[in-house]
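Backbone-to-sequence.
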């Protein structure tokens, strides 16, 4: 068992050193940033498509649902 530990520990150290020295691929941050911009654009487009009246209805529905749920949770 001790022999196994003597061989395993240096291997684990080498793996940790390799993982720590590994750098992110060039351009990876740009791709992630572009993905975030696409998601933001879709959300903005959805809000604009719903319009102010639709947003008011959406929030009213959410608040009514929350109020109904909370009222039902109160002890009688």
């Amino acid at each position: 068992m001790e022999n196994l530990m003597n061989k395993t520990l240096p291997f684990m150290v080498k793996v940790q050193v390799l993982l720590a020295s590994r750098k992110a691929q060039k351009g990876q941050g740009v791709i992630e940033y572009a993905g975030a911009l696409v998601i933001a654009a879709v959300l903005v487009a959805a809000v604009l498509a719903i319009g102010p009246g639709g947003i008011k209805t959406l929030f009213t529905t959410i608040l009514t649902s929350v109020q109904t749920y909370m009222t039902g949770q109160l002890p009688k």
